[in-house]
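Researcher: We plan to redesign the surface later, but first we want a full-length starting point. Tokens attached.
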């Protein structure tokens, strides 16, 4: 006999907190994000909005301020996404923590499904499928991380997905000090998940796409993104030097190839085909010809072909 559990009972069984970090003065996106949370089948016990580097006055006309579950923290100086998330983590009282940037939003079943899975499995870290929307090109696609986590694969590339798709145990964070690295300006999701993996967290795979996040691909944002990515990759290489040195030579080579692919994808997305071409030449010189011809073909046939190719490559590399 199946027992029906009310939403109020779920809220008492497992408390939930959603931590939203904002981009300065992007209030329309923030309103949509919070509205999606307030329309959840199982509403979060608390929503913590960390306003980073701009006045929270843009929130004053928002209806969600009337909600008891919503609180706002103002960083009057811009601290960055990682310090802001850590501020939210330390304020949160929920057993399960969700993360959301202001231009991301959740499917109405997101929190309910995560709580339901947590009651059954008591995971420390959940991740899984999400949907990406590239604003400039109106292209949508799914990201599907692998269901099985292996340490050598985790060091080769980000196999976990984006932070907005993570659901984590606050107890595990506090017991093991698994906070976001505040020195890191990119690849935060990868590093955050790695810290859980290295400290023995139990992982759970969310098979259904319940998270939606947006990507902007203007030349300026991509150029900045490439620079931050390269710096972050060097930082992570130093941070986990001992573990990386223990990888096989093939795993180390694959790690370098995966990093080159990400940089070239970013350049191609912004239409910087010449830079992508020369990066491909470097990749060819270091590794093998197959990657070079794939990237070169992608640069000629355009963005839609690139995304199809990306999905194909992700399957082939598994």
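Model: Full-length starting sequence:
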């Amino acid at each position: 006999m199946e027992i029906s559990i009310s939403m109020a009972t779920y809220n008492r069984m497992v408390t939930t907190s959603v931590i939203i970090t904002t981009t300065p003065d992007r209030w329309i996106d923030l309103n949509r994000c919070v509205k999606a949370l307030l329309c959840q089948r199982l509403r979060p016990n608390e929503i913590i909005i960390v306003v980073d580097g701009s006045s929270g006055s843009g929130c004053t006309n928002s209806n969600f301020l009337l909600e008891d579950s919503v609180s706002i923290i103002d960083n009057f100086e811009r601290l960055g996404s990682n310090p802001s998330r850590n501020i939210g983590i330390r304020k949160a009282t929920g057993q399960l923590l969700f993360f959301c940037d202001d231009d991301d939003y959740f499917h109405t079943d997101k929190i309910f499904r995560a709580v339901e899975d947590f009651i059954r499995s008591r995971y420390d870290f959940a991740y899984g499928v999400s949907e990406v929307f590239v604003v400039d090109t109106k292209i949508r696609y799914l990201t599907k991380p692998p269901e099985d986590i292996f340490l050598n694969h985790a060091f080769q590339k980000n196999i976990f997905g984006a932070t907005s798709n993570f659901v984590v145990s606050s107890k595990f964070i506090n017991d093991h000090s698994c906070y976001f690295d505040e020195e890191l300006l990119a690849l935060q999701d990868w590093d955050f998940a790695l810290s859980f993996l290295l400290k023995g967290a139990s992982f759970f795979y969310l098979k259904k796409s319940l998270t939606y996040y947006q990507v902007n691909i203007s030349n300026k944002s991509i150029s900045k993104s490439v620079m931050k990515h390269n710096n972050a990759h060097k930082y992570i290489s130093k941070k986990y030097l001992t573990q990386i040195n223990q990888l096989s030579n093939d795993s180390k080579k694959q790690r370098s190839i995966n990093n080159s692919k990400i940089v070239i994808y970013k350049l191609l997305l912004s239409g910087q085909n010449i830079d992508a071409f020369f990066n491909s030449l470097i990749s060819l010189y270091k590794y093998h010809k197959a990657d070079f011809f794939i990237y070169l073909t992608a640069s000629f046939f355009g963005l839609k072909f690139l995304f199809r190719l990306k999905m194909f490559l992700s399957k082939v590399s598994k």
